[in-house]
Amino acid sequence: LWDGAPGLSGQRVEELGVSAQDKVSPMSDLDLGKIYGQVAKALANKKTALYLKSGGASAPGADDVTLVVQSPPALVVGGHLAEDASAAEMRFELARGLELSRPEYILAAGVRPKQFTQLFSNVLKAFHARPARRRASPSDSRADPAADLKKNVPYKVSKRLVELFTELGTTSWSSVRWRAFVQHSGNRAGLLLSADLETAARLVLKNGGGARDVPADELRRLAVSNESLRELLRFAISEDYFLLREKVGTAITRAAAA
């Protein structure tokens, strides 16, 4: 769906107060730019642009890392990440953002939950056989987002969506669980590229609306009740994590050899 209709959300970086002059290059002298280039290369995602919001670390929104759902995607970061953050924090936030900007994740990660649910409802109505057979009322025909969606999506994408719903149409699915899974994937990428579990754990809590500075004993307590933190810790002790660290060059043995 994203490949075929990337303009669905209508978002633009200009809405966040940045322009082409604020774009950060991987060749920049800023540590932020250098780390962005390294992380983008490691995750094989060089399509997502990076913008630095001016105003310094004390400006409103300076703490934010915002995914902009446009084509090509963009990350807009505040002054804190460029000026005050540690290298591990930069790596986590940039890796998380770059992972979430992938075509398979970007709509769930960057569109607000209510809008995402409505979007997927329209996708079902437009391309799923059973909802599509529902007889439209006169009021539907005057303003039907599902019909507009079907009309604006290229035929090749439309055909593939119909095929997918035909194959998987009876599969149970929850948009809430899918969004949670997408966030877990972003957090895993952040941990993988930062190789710093303590920093990753604190940022997972912060991104979920919690405090940035949490005592170690509180982290242990939160791991029992916080799903995102619990999933991150599970990944941190998994075989997949250590195999992936070898692949991206952050394994302890390679670091020691370097």
Task: Please give a structural write-up.
The chain is mainly alpha-helical and 258 residues long. It is built from 15 helices and three strands. A three-stranded mixed sheet has the order 1-3-2. Strand 2 (65-68) and strand 3 (74-77) form a beta hairpin. Helix 5 packs across helix 8, helix 11 runs antiparallel to helix 13 and helix 12 (216-225) packs across helix 13 (227-236). The N and C termini lie far apart (43 Å). Mean pLDDT is 85; it is low at 57-61.
Keywords:
258 residues, mainly alpha, three-stranded mixed sheet, 15 helices, 3 strands, 5% strand
Q: What's the SSE blueprint?
A:
Elements: H1 31-42, E1 49-52, E2 65-68, E3 74-77, H2 79-83, H3 87-100, H4 106-110, H5 113-127, H6 129-132, H7 138-142, H8 145-152, H9 155-168, H10 175-194, H11 197-207, H12 216-225, H13 227-236, H14 239-248, H15 252-257
Parallel strand pairs: 1-3
Antiparallel strand pairs: 2-3
